[in-house]
Amino acid sequence: MSSEEQGPRKIDPVADVVAQTSSGVAAVVPHTWARAELFGTSLRAAVFAGLLCALPFTLTNYQVFQVTLVLVYAIALLGLNLLTGYNGQISLGHGAFYAIGAYVAAILMDRYGVPYWLTVPVAGVGCFLVGYLFGFPALRLEGLYLALATFALGVALPQLLKSNFLEPWTGGVQGIVITKPDAPYGLKLNPDQWLYFFTLFFVLIALFLTRNLLRSRIGLAMVAIRDQPIAAEAMGVNTAFYKSLAFGISAMLTGVAGALGAIAVQFVAPDSFTVLLSITLLVGIVIGGLASIPGAMYGAIFIQFVPNVADKISKAAPWAIYGVFLILFMLVLPSGIAGGVRAMSHRFARRRSIQK
């Protein structure tokens, strides 16, 4: 049967744009090699999961608290990387969404007695709505103009939280103190260990959802808009919808991180969410690796521990040492830590194939 007899080809705008932006060369992978690669990946994931579960029992409470903050920042960086790395929209105000999530959790727990575990999804939904609505006016802005608009959001929100109008809920400059929850069901875990596993649960959910989202039509559309926005729009991709959706999902993940961070730290105040937090998150995705899911974890480790290392090296000028670290990372690993790890693994695999 000829192509004319089969009828017109069904048009899939996302698939067409992705086909145009890709190399157009299909790689045929042997079935046995694919199974071996899948087994190796599953084995590495199982070993890594076992190490994560054993980690809080080998550290002090303060060290467990620090690792919990690494997991919190990993979720926030995952959200920002989804927006900037995969969709190409620059944000210098994601600390505002982190603050909204933190305050939603703190207000619900302190003022209304809502269980701590319920405040996390509520904060995520609230930040999704705020981010999605913010995405609409941001559609008219691109590049540095969009970065400036988000920067204004990050600067304005801490001042808004101090206002007399919101002080009955936010506590003004005094902030809100919340109680760290104990482990449920009689589990023999101290509060720090329990919050570690509680946060790890949301990290795994965020990683799973993000990975599957990027493999779906929505994720392909986001990447197509980043790579070829004019071609994507010409092929029928609704760029306005997908850009706003990217903003909403990114804000949702960052809001979840903010809620988890507030529960872990037990305190929220406007001065904890200055524009420096937004810049720190941006540094995290650049150091970790743009458009990389593992890069979120690498970046979170960097922004949590490197400032402490810089402070120990020089009490007089810790920010100068921190700046030196940033310059060295950019010179040695211009594609981020994830890019460096990926290049090393490819080089190692190539050497093994040559030796065989």
How is this structure best summarized?
The protein has 356 residues and is an all-alpha fold. 73% of the residues lie in helices and 1% in strands.
Element layout with pairings:
Elements: H1 13-21, H2 31-54, H3 61-84, H4 94-112, H5 116-138, H6 144-161, H7 167-170, E1 176-177, H8 191-215, H9 217-227, H10 229-234, H11 239-265, E2 267-268, H12 275-288, H13 294-313, H14 318-332, H15 336-355
Descriptive report:
- With 356 residues, the protein is mostly helical.
- It has 15 helices and two strands.
- It has helices at 13-21, 31-54, 61-84, 94-112, 116-138, 144-161, 167-170, 191-215, 217-227, 229-234, 239-265, 275-288, 294-313, 318-332, 336-355, and strands at residues 176-177, 267-268.
- The chain has a two-stranded antiparallel ribbon with strand order 1-2.
- Helix 3 runs antiparallel to helix 11 and helix 4 runs antiparallel to helix 5 (116-138).
- The longest helix is centred in the last third of the chain and has 27 residues, at 239-265.
- The chain starts with 12 loop residues before the first helix and ends with a helix.
Number of strands: 2
Shape: globular
Q: Order of strands across the widest beta sheet?
A: 1-2
Distance between the first and last residues' Cα = 47 Å
Query: How confident overall, as mean pLDDT?
Result: 86
Biggest sheet details: 2 strands, antiparallel
Content-based structural category: mainly alpha
**Strand percentage, roughly?**
under 5%
Number of H- or I-type helical stretches: 15
- What helical percentage do the residues reach? over 70%
In terms of per-residue confidence, which ranges show pLDDT below 50 for 5 or more consecutive residues? 1-11, 17-30
